[in-house]
Amino acid sequence: MVTLLPIVSRELRVASRKRMTYWSRFGTAIIAFGAFIWVWLSMARHATNSQRGMMLFSVISGAAFLFALIAGAAITADCISEEKRDGTLGLLFLTDLRGYDVVFGKLFATSIDSFYRLVAVFPILAIPVMMGGVAPEEVGRVVLVLLNTLFLSLCLGIFFSSISRDDRRARALTGGVLLFLTLGVPALCAGYAAYYELRTVTLDLMIFSPGFGFFTAFTGFYKPNHFWGSLLFCHGLSWASLIVASFILPHVWQDKAKSKKGEKLQKTWDVWRHGTSEQRAAFRSSLLDTNAVYWLGARDRLKPAVIWLFLGLAGALWFWLFVRWPDDMLEPEIYVMTAVIINTCLKFWVASEAPRLFGRDKKSGALELLLSTPMSVPSILRGQLLALWRHFGWQITVVFALELLMMTAALVEENFDGEFFLLWFVGLTMFLLDIVALAVLGMWHGLRAKTVNAASGQVVARILILPWFLFFSFITFFELSDLDRSLSMDEEEAMLFWLAIGICINAYFTIMSWRNLVAKFREIATQRFDKSAGWRWFGWFRPKAQ
Question: Of the four listed, 389, 414, 427, 541, which is most buried by Cβ atoms within 10 Å?
Fold first, then answer.
């Protein structure tokens, strides 16, 4: 008996036997319900049942939409490209498997967990219906958009993974296309309308955006043509991505001999990336005199250039907006929003790059060879930190200086607002502390985690998400603990409290990670990966040996 899509059938059987398949769904439901309770309690004194129901529905569905949107870049964008790098993809095509067998098998193998997580949120979305303010058909439309967006994100990740060998390139392409469809298309439509001074934005062109489909799913903005048009376009794009990936995958996994033109392009790329032979020799001699590991981690000249390019494009966009709306762009709120966006992008960039330095070398076995040299562990760690500084140091310095300039300009304009000064002080302080913590913790998790992507996710969760979770939890407690409001905090106290939480978390993870790197580097570097890495969130809990 011939089994249709045998890899899919196998992956479904394997997933059904995994405990994590069920625990992840249960955990997601608990988190969603906890967020539901938190929003409910936060609005207990300020809104009616119908208002709370609508706010709860908007918050939970918005978080679910964001999860569905980033799932492709986080989950499927490296599933096929990893097989290419390891040289195992060709083994699958030695059998009777076809391209669609591999594509759909990888899709189900990597996405079943994210699908269950999303489905676990749907019962929570139905609770506001009983509170009023949300119609049942509105919940149905939002559920359709969430499932469709998840499918689109995963399929685009599969497609770009099939045409790429590098994980970062595949994730960047997936995230870039999704970002363009979600925000770029509406921004282009709005910019077109503003440039030609049109009274209304052409909504028919916005059906290409999944964000527009999510927006029109709500009752107040629902229009059948726009909603179903966006839904059908995204669904069609998803299937087109899978079909194209199925056709091209059997032809792109081989290492083919390059033509003369291809070799010339490769040499040009190598010159751009590493410099000419004379430049490489001078660069190598200057860095080897400082630290050998520094040279290994800083050889790629394009990494700092890409960050400069990003900052240059952001500055050009800000200047263009300033030319169009000079008064609005000089408002303090715009300064704050600009700083938050740039700082967040740089933090995520450091979180993705810091684990890669050790994770890549450990997987290739280069770390074991490095440990056989006379270099000490502190010298190796110092070299990696110097490489990170070469990639990000001057860019972060420039951003910090520009933000100080923005703060000064805003304070002069507002005749020194003490609360606004405190906001900038807290934000800039946490920016620098987060960068340091992300770098050190990223090196430690890159050494321990199975994949660089997993290490980056763990670092982001501890340094960028955990402080906000604790902050909002304590704020909710203060708001609800006493009816006479004796334990409530004003805005300045809240900012200082958030700063204290951030300092404590960053200090703990930075110190513990550095101690572990110094004490356990040789032990962890010779292991394939640390199986308990996902369990030890704070460094003291570890599952017992079986």
Answer: 427
